[in-house]
User: What shape does this take?
Amino acid sequence: MKADCHIHAVLDGIDWKAALMRHAQIPDDGFIHKMLKTYQAQGYTYLRDGGDRWGAGFRARELAEDYGITYKTPGAPLCKAGHYGSFIGVCYSTINEYTQLVKKARTDGADFIKIMISGLMDFNWFGVLTEPALDGQWIRQLVHIAHEEGFSVMAHANGTEAVLPAAEAGVDSVEHGAYLHEEALWAMKEAKTVWVPTVSTVGNLRGKGRFDDRAVEQILESALENIHRYTQMGGLIAPGSDAGAWSVPHGCDTEEALLNRAGVSPEALQAGINGILQKF
Ligand SMILES: [Zn+2]
Assistant: This one.
């Protein structure tokens, strides 16, 4: 089956500020219909949203049925105040506030919880993240609380420092996952965590002139090496384009080709999709 396990209905791949404005009052049905039509035409039957606080993901889920698409969304991603993610998510400062937001997610009808626990890659500098990971003990609590409330957890996480504690706490999927050491990969494998590396967000930057191409190429190669390692270990990897991110339009199908290049067989990719379907 064709699945994209990480997209953002709220974003358009071109201009995130303009995209968010589009849905600021109420979600823009015209945009969402067009997006769903694009996925339908390409044979997608499952989409998993990375979240937004304007309800675009929820609206897409309502409309997706008519397109024969199963659509899952966390509602708003949950991010710690002062850290990456506040442009698209809802912030909390204390564990108690986080717990309240998890409970609210249930009332709102979220399918799962999305947590933001690290920064982004700096695409001009290989090996550099825009900020340090949240504290490891804190990360473990975030995962445990969401699990206790009966939710699966999708984690935006780059770097071993974010991914290791998340995997040790049994996080259900890791998104992006740049710069992982072997230790983090084994912890993910042990926890049966599905890795959604969203390498299109890196691969599609090549030759665009926005970032240093040498750095972009290095970041991509290191990601593909780790993907290769994880699939060799028997770890689950699922295709997720992060469509809506810059230079990744909806319906962009570069992800599978990149994962294939890293040595993920079509059968392994299907196993990864099955892992996502089971948990989400
Ligand atoms: Zn995303």
Summary: The beta strands are 2-7, 44-49, 70-72, 78-80, 90-92, 113-116, 153-157, 173-176, 194-196, 236-237.
